[in-house]
Amino acid sequence: MNKKILLTSFMSIAMLSSVVTGATYALFTAEDTVNVAVTAGKVAVDAYVDENSLKTYSMGVEQKTYGTFENGGFAKFDEKSNLKLDLLTPGDKASFVVKVDNNSNVNIKYQITLAMEGELAPALASKVTIAGKEYSLIDGKTGYIDLAAGKDIPDVEVEVELPVEAGNKYQEKSANITVNVEALQGNAQ
Q: Helix, strand, or coil here: 109?
């Protein structure tokens, strides 16, 4: 029986010794973290008519008074720089430049399209040009062009003319012409 008590005592002392030793014994450790910050890029373009580029013509003659046509028509801008051509008669033409600010911070692809609708559209179709090309020849599209982040998009020259051949059926008719600038991220398919 003494052997059991003696063995139990030794085991108790050994366990107590290991607990005490473990409590005062420290291991070297290390810990570290890595943060991953994610920010998305931006594709942004702003198109507007350069008001200083507006020129008006009547029967091929540039008008001296800004924004007027010989027969009483006029060209004016609204608060959003949209251009309104009002009271045009056959032979009146307006030319202007559409500027596009590339505010993208990533590479982009862009294209410029022209859309025309309204009862006056058939008369204007052959006399609306964008970047020197007739509307009917380009079907409203110039195609996508690659551009690096922050690079300037070239100005787009636009001309709108009510041709001399426009007949009486176009009196008091209207049309809406929209110049669209579409930008996509540079790696878009």
A: strand
